[in-house]
Write a structure and sequence with these properties.
By secondary structure, the protein is α+β, with helices and mostly antiparallel strands. Helix content is 26%, strand content 22%. Helix 8 runs antiparallel to helix 10.
């Protein structure tokens, strides 16, 4: 299960694995950029006082807060509103320096699961008797049942992976729920974790999409949404009925600042206290120049995977040969070095499995490096010839395409400009179309109204779920209510079966082997092209206290209840 930026969407008992370039190396490369030697160490927890407010800069504004719907795909919405308000069964926490799934305080302990001889799997959850919604109503098995059926049976669902296997739910005991899956699901910990759960007593029989579209009053987490002023900000206040640790702060406001330059100016001026920016060249330059009074953390343990996404059902990328030729037209290492070289990152990502699920990743995309002779061979073999302008042409059509990119992201602006130049040398004509996140992930991508795009998929659970991205059953269409996130219309013979094996195989070694085989098949067909694993950067004022730390799976605000004003 993947969340999309769709900066952009994934659970397992398996450990989160650090990328080849360790976080320590990244932090070390940034050491020279630290504000000064007198600034307190960013890894030291600073004591906080109760009360007060913080303002945090947010790069993106979500389209809606109906988290199971396609419009809820922005990862920023998940970070700033979903995780603080909707409880989930598993949360990702650091154990012995590794980030792994742990049962949350929603349940009394690790759920019990068993695979029967007939292949069905049962999972039994014991709900914490202290768990209540913000209106004081107990969280019960009815909430689990309601959430599961809304996802399994609904239209316009972001991702049904795992829930589509549910064959029965026993919610007869209010504090115990047993879910039966028609077939074994290795990623069963994603269930009720990535999406969390919703209150049946408030939503059953109602229009969930309408109620949750623009924020909602209920909460089962430490925070409540006080106000969402579209285009401006979101404000959270403490949930007075939360059964766990109460927030120290009286209020947190997320101020939407999509422009990096404006965001950094707001941080330096004190308008905002915290930033979690995508690594931009101007941001790295400013850090390198020194930001007095600002602490930083950079982490390569990331679920962020940026790629060139291709619509396999739209010309010219409905041809495997053209997609392969495109891959040989691009010097991906040069692009990555240009973007992240100052952080010590200079090689492209070679799998669509992100660094946090690296045991399941192969390196088959390493076969694609800049090779214009190979481009000529593939294109000519597919019936193309260059016209007088040096652009590939075939049957009256040229190899011209538009790439969708998000407006206001200077790193992406540079990326597409470099791509445009490299591709022109190879005989492809690329135009650039800047769009908003709401349009891109709300209508354009789900409806397949694009040829190519560049954005980031963000794994929100440390489990391989490429089936969400590339299995043909997850192609959104009018017939399925535009559910699913295979926006790329990928349908590769044999791939569904391999990805299904990755989802179902309980044996870790067999599962990894199936994943590697799937990676090879994906690379052979180039449904899209991975670029880089985007590192995480967190910046905060020394007026902020508490244990600030990037969670590579749940984002930077996972422990916001523990933050406060420095004492």
């Amino acid at each position: 299960m993947s969340k999309s930026l769709l900066r952009t969407a994934v659970p397992s008992s398996r450990r989160v694995v650090i990328a080849a370039l360790t976080a320590a190396a990244l932090i070390g490369s940034l050491a020279a950029c630290s504000p000064s030697s007198s600034t307190p160490d960013a890894n030291e927890e600073v004591a906080v006082v109760d009360g007060g407010e913080l303002v945090i800069g947010a790069e993106q504004e979500p389209d809606c807060t109906d988290w199971i719907a396609t419009c809820g795909g922005s990862i920023w919405g998940t970070w700033i509103m979903q995780i603080p308000t909707l409880p989930g069964v598993f949360e990702t926490r650091q154990v012995d320096d590794e980030w792994v799934p742990q049962p949350s305080d929603l349940v009394t302990g690790e759920p019990e699961t068993e695979v029967a001889d007939d292949g069905t799997q049962t999972i039994t959850y014991s709900i914490n008797p202290d768990a209540v919604w913000s209106d004081g109503e107990p969280i019960t098995s009815a909430d689990f049942e309601y959430t599961a059926l809304q996802i399994r049976d609904g239209d316009d669902i972001f991702d049904k992976t795992g829930y589509d296997r549910i064959s029965a739910i026993d919610a007869s005991d209010p504090k115990t729920v047993t879910v039966t899956l028609a077939s074994a699901y290795a990623g069963w910990r994603t269930l009720f974790s990535v999406y969390g759960i919703m209150p049946a007593h408030l939503l059953e029989g109602q229009d969930r999409a309408a109620i949750m579209a623009d924020g909602y009053e209920f909460s089962g987490g430490p925070w409540k949404i006080e106000k969402w002023t579209r285009g401006t900000s979101v404000t959270l206040v403490p949930n007075e009925n939360y059964w766990g640790e109460k927030p120290h702060l009286e209020k947190v406001t997320f101020l939407f600042l999509p422009d990096t330059t404006a965001a950094f100016q707001a941080l330096k001026s004190g308008q905002v206290n915290v930033l979690y920016p995508s690594p931009q060249l101007d941001a790295l330059t400013q850090i390198d120049a020194g930001l007095p009074g600002i602490k930083s953390q950079v982490d390569a343990r990331t679920g962020n995977l940026e790629a060139i996404w291709l619509n396999n059902a739209a010309a010219p990328f409905d041809s495997v040969a053209v997609r392969q030729a495109l891959a040989y037209s691009i010097d991906r290492d040069a692009i990555v070095k240009r973007l992240f070289g100052s952080l010590g990152i200079d090689t492209a990502q070679q799998s669509f499995n992100s660094p946090i699920v690296s045991p399941f990743a192969a390196d088959d995309f390493s076969q694609y490096s800049l090779d214009l002779d190979k481009v000529d061979e593939l294109m000519e073999g597919d019936g193309w010839a260059k016209d007088s302008d040096g652009v590939w042409a075939k049957a009256g059509e040229t190899a011209t395409f538009s790439i969708k990119t998000l407006a206001g992201n200077k790193r992406r602006d540079l990326t597409v400009q470099v791509l445009q130049s490299q591709l022109a040398d190879a005989g492809f004509e690329m135009t650039i179309d800047q769009v908003t996140p709401a349009d891109l992930f709300g209508t354009i991508a789900p409806e397949g109204d694009f040829q190519a795009g560049i954005w980031t998929l963000v794994d929100t659970f440390a489990d391989p779920t490429l089936s969400s991205t590339f299995s043909s059953v997850n192609i959104p269409s009018e017939a399925n209510g535009f559910s699913g996130i295979n926006f790329y219309r990928t349908s590769i013979p044999g791939l569904d079966e391999l990805l299904g094996q990755v989802d179902s195989e309980i044996d870790p070694d067999a599962r990894a082997a199936a994943s590697h085989e799937a990676d090879a098949l994906i690379a052979e067909n180039v449904p899209s092209l991975p670029l880089d694993a985007v590192p995480n950067v967190l910046l905060w004022s020394d007026t902020v206290g508490g244990p600030l730390q990037i969670n590579p799976v749940e984002g930077p605000f996972w422990n916001l209840a523990e933050w406060g004003l420095a004492g």
